[in-house]
Design goal:
The chain is α+β, with helices and mostly antiparallel strands. The protein has 14 helices and 12 strands.
Length: 426
């Protein structure tokens, strides 16, 4: 932006300077030409008194000698009767005859300058032509120096405009950069950061609008977190009743599994309340995907054994650190495994695999069920063909995209659905 403003100022000022400089240069040259011819006219007119008094040769030569042009051998007098020329002439006989016919002041261009011819009518010799010669260097005397001065003034104006544009651009760029930095912090979750309201009026208006928007979003998010926390807290009552009912089941593998599931659900509710109260806080610590896979399979393996589902896990023996919180990754994996148990019959095989690559980790969950008919519709939020909420795959997709990765759904080697959660590494 700053460079663009400088280039615009440079182009505009240069065009304006040239628009004035070229005509001025022409005027200066024309003025020097006119000034030189005016001086030649004065020198020619200086001979008029002497020619009117006497036209004898010696007196004419003396008069020529005492003029400045005569001393520089640039003045001549041409008599018509008798046809004599005194002084230093720079014109031809044809030029002289043409001037005598015109009987008015005229100029004749010569290779080395311009001859100014002034006719004078006398009683003794008829028409007398006084010739004053102006060489080329006199015609352009002072022109080059004036052009250099004009060029210097134009360059100074252009440089001044560029400096002013650069200063104005620097002010606008600085304000814009501060605006971008504040917006970047807000995008990272710090809604209290705000942006500085500085710079040009338009930038200040943008800063005010962004601050107002951030405040509004902060209020809405706070209200949303409170609603989520309140709704989650209301689940405690049925959970407590369910836990009491589980205690009446006595002892045994089935009862223990029910109690464990209720306790796990209670822990999830507590986690939801904690996250809702904490708000948008970036988690820079990340999580170990291998550890999350091992921990969650401990929970799901009990249900798989009860339903006689063969299952395998591969690649979870090596650490795989990804930039996502442990709870979010666990929720994504639970959503994928929950789909397997919900949409496939008991006894259906499933597998969980961690594929380690240089820049990402692929968390793959596949099964031997009927698969997914419409892959694109399945990943749309709220879309489901099986009567569910349709949020499972969307939760996994958002978890993957939060790391810069993606979610891919297709048919796997087991014959059923294969969901690949591609997570970017640190």
């Amino acid at each position: 932006m700053r460079r663009s403003l400088v280039l615009v100022a440079l182009a505009a000022t240069s065009m304006v300077a040239l628009a004035f400089l070229i005509p001025l240069a022409i005027v200066v040259k024309s003025s020097a030409y006119t000034r030189a011819l005016s001086e030649a006219e004065k020198q020619a007119n200086a001979m008029t008194p002497a020619l009117l008094i006497s036209q004898r040769e010696q007196e004419i030569r003396n008069a020529i000698r005492f003029t400045r042009y005569g001393g520089q051998q640039r003045l001549a007098v041409h008599l018509s009767t008798p046809p004599n020329t005194y002084g230093y002439s720079h014109i031809t006989a044809a030029d002289l005859r043409e001037a005598q016919k015109l009987a008015t002041a005229s100029t004749i261009e010569r290779p080395d300058g311009v001859a100014y011819l002034q006719p004078l009518a006398t009683s003794e010799s008829g028409i007398v032509i006084v010739e004053a010669f102006v060489p080329h260097e006199q015609l352009s005397h002072g022109v080059i120096g004036t052009w250099w001065v004009l060029a210097g003034v134009a360059a100074g104006l252009v440089a001044g405009s560029v400096i002013v544009a650069d200063r104005l651009g620097a002010r606008a760029v600085k304000a814009t950069q501060a605006l971008a930095e504040g917006a970047r912090r807000m995008g990272q979750g710090d809604l209290t950061a705000g942006v500085p309201v500085t710079g040009p009026p338009e930038v200040r208006e943008v800063g005010k609008a962004i601050n107002a928007m951030a405040e509004r979003v902060r209020v809405l998010l706070a209200a949303e977190r409170e609603v989520v926390a309140d709704l989650s807290h209301r689940l405690r009552t049925p959970l407590t009743a369910l836990l009491l009912d589980a205690d009446t089941l006595g002892r045994g593998p089935g009862a223990d599994r029910v109690r464990e599931a209720v306790q796990g659900l209670e822990r999830e509710v507590d986690e939801i309340i904690k996250v809702a109260r904490a708000g948008l806080q970036p988690d820079d610590g990340g999580a170990d995907a291998s550890g999350v896979v091992r921990d969650r399979l401990v929970f799901w393996s009990a249900l798989a054994d009860d339903q006689e589902r063969p299952w395998t896990v591969r690649g979870a023996d090596k650490p795989a650190h990804v930039p996502i919180s442990r709870s979010e990754l666990a929720a994504a994996l639970d959503a994928l495994l929950g789909n397997v148990f919900h949409y496939t019959r008991e006894g259906t095989r499933f597998a969980v695999t961690l594929v380690h690559q240089a820049d990402l980790v692929a968390l793959v969950v596949e099964d031997a069920g009927p698969g997914i008919a419409d892959f694109r519709r399945a990943v749309r939020r709220g879309a489901s063909g099986g009567g569910s909420t349709g949020l499972g795959l969307d939760i996994a997709r958002r978890a993957a995209e939060s790391t810069g990765g993606s979610l891919h759904v297709d048919r796997g080697p087991l014959g059923g659905a294969r969901v690949q959660l591609r997570l970017r590494r640190f």
